[in-house]
Amino acid sequence: MIRMKLNNESVGSTDLIVDIPKLLRSPGEVTNIVSSWDIDSVQTAYSKAVLMHLEIALEAISDRITVTGKLKLHWTSQCRRCLEATTGETLIEIHEVFEEGASEGETFELPVGEKLDLKPMLSEQAMLNLPLAALCSESCKGPPETKFFIHASGSAVKEKKDPRWAILDQLKLPED
Ligand SMILES: [Zn+2]
Known about the structure:
Radius of gyration: 24 Å
Helix content: 10-25%
Bound molecules: zinc ion
Strand content: 25-35%
Order of helices and strands: EHEEEEEEHHHH
Number of strands: 7
């Protein structure tokens, strides 16, 4: 269990833009960022990012800037068994490097200019770590109707109807 220190926490994203010259001027000096970000632009077909707590350290090493630390990603998703909405959190450890002439898929491009916006990198981390097949709980058995299939026999099977016929059923009188 990794515990996050959330003192000096601020909700927002302004402190996720860092000053590049300042970092490069003091190589080996660690800049810590503890923050929360209302990340709402990252989603997949299955899940959506809600909030990211971050506790990261930035350090300039020669002309590169390294970012290491921990992210806690809160998300909403749909349970793959019962299809109910569910929420959860994922811990992500990062060790990323920003440099000029970045290697595709290995390091991030250090922009020309004064400001390094960490949000695109953090968004990528969120995207890669959103659950593909979330469960509302490990013991989720799926929707109640499923048991009629498992013990399928006679009338039980009728419980699973094509919803498109439901409207017709309402028009019919009971036959017994
Ligand atoms: Zn479920």
